[in-house]
Amino acid sequence: MNKQVTLLCTLAASLLFSFSAQAAETAEMKVKGSILPPACTPTFAGGNTVDYETIPAKSLKSREYAKLETRSIPFTVTCNAKMRIGIAVTDNRATSRIDSGSFSSAHSFGLGSVDGKNVGNYVLALGPDVKVDGNNSQLVFFDTQGTGVSNFGSLIMSVHNTARFIYTALTAGQVWTFDMNLTAYLNKRENLNLTGSIPLDGSATIEVKYL
């Protein structure tokens, strides 16, 4: 008798456990998100072309390079997050550089060539300030080959086809505005063929680097 009672109690307990397991509710939790790489958009205010328009041939000088007026080119980089960036510049007309005497070839960008004769060169200067999110920040540059970091006022940009020299600010931010000034120099009159039109054909690539 006792054995039968014990068996029935065990069976009842098993039925209750099974019913409880079937009646349990569940809820799923999900974790989502995206890891995005840094993204920045560089733009030139007023477009990316510096146009000196028509230059009279008679304005060119013998035995002397002709300096053209300096043009200002505001350059802005807008990023999707607060970060440190730098800019590097590569000359796409490097084979047409001349040494105008004002700056070495390391700081001169070519203006193309006509009939095998180099038209001239130009230099780019940054600074003395860069604005980061509307605030002035100190402008610096460093050599990616590890020769150090230097602080300057206004910087004459160095040319290197492997984008070796990086220009940046000491602070991080999302909107960067660089003051960039371009000054062009034309070759000596006797070094050019002035019987036809001579176009200025400078081209440089400015690259945003994520630091």
From TrEMBL:
Keywords, comma-separated and alphabetical: Signal
InterPro entries named in the record: DUF1120
Highest rank taxon of the organism: Bacteria
Pfam families from the UniProt entry: DUF1120
First and last residue of the signal peptide: 1-23
Official protein name in the record: DUF1120 domain-containing protein
